[in-house]
Write a structure and sequence with these properties.
The chain is an alpha+beta fold. The protein folds into two domains: 115 residues, Jelly Rolls (Sandwich), CATH 2.60.120.380; 101 residues. The strands form two sheets. Strands 1, 3, 4, 7 and 9 form a five-stranded antiparallel sheet that branches. Strands 2-8-5-6 form a four-stranded antiparallel sheet. The longest helix has 91 residues.
């Protein structure tokens, strides 16, 4: 990881200010490209758990480093915490399988290698009750996560293997190419999973459309039969009523001819 501060004087000319801004942005982008790292800090309470998601290709080494600080009321700043404060680290792979679960001290370093590409969950929490005596139980944790070739300590490798500067640079380039290949394979894996999900969704939509069509057809046939039976019954009832009316009229004419 790399921490740096960048200051520049703002002149009276807007053109000069813009040029300095572009230069500063270029320096920041260059340093971010040379030293890519996920470095951050966060506050955590007693027994509180903080989790982070890291997308990692398969067969990739990951190194995490952390250090803890406690708030000191006298100095008004965060100071290194006491050794008695422990931090528990738990890491799960994309299948929610625990690949690392270990208790560390106030400062620690954890390492694991991914065997399944995808989102890995990195969780940290303190199981110490001594935090309640300090800063209302709040703790600041500085976390630095390095992935792939950034986990290599090249000065140590050069000293161990007695590599020249050119050989070391070639080694770095080879490691970068290998990491790029892993990233490409991971992107292909994600693309394949997305395609499979899309095909499955499209197939489900198709079958649901067919099911809806069948339901509508069956409902229409049932409604037609029901209406047909209803009208037939109504027609038969009307005919019977008409026949009864005609019969009653005839009987009335026979029994009371003068009335008719």
């Amino acid at each position: 990881s790399l921490g740096f501060s960048l200051y520049y004087a703002v002149g009276s000319s807007p053109y000069h200010t813009n040029m300095l801004s572009f230069s500063a942005a270029g320096v920041i982008l260059l340093l971010a490209w040379i030293y890519p790292s996920d470095s951050l800090y966060f506050h955590i309470g007693e027994t509180e758990k903080k989790c982070f998601i890291e997308e990692i290709p398969d067969e990739t080494m990951v190194i995490g480093k952390y250090r803890t600080q406690l708030w000191d009321k006298q100095t008004g700043s965060f100071l290194p915490s006491t050794p008695g404060l422990g931090m528990h680290v738990e890491i799960k792979d994309p299948d929610t399988k625990i690949i690392l679960s270990r208790q560390y001290g106030s400062d620690g370093r954890f390492t694991f290698t991914s065997h399944t590409p995808g989102e890995h969950q990195i969780c940290l929490h303190s199981n110490s009750t001594k935090m309640a005596l300090f800063a209302g139980g709040k703790l600041r944790v500085h976390l630095d996560i390095q992935v792939g070739e950034h986990t290599n300590n090249y000065p140590e490798i050069a000293a161990k293997d007695k590599l020249t500067e050119l050989q070391l640079r070639v080694r770095q380039l080879l490691d970068q190419v290998e990491q790029i290949q892993k990233e490409q394979n991971y992107q292909r894996y994600r693309e394949e999973r997305f395609r499979m999900t899309s095909e499955s969704t499209n197939q489900r939509v198709l079958w649901w459309s067919i099911a809806q069509t069948v339901i509508l057809i069956v409902t229409g046939i049932w409604q037609m039969k029901h209406l047909k039976s209803f009208f037939e019954a109504k027609k038969l009832h009307s005919e019977r009523a008409f026949h009864r009316s005609v019969t009653s009229t005839r009987e009335l004419m026979v029994t009371h001819p003068k009335v008719c």
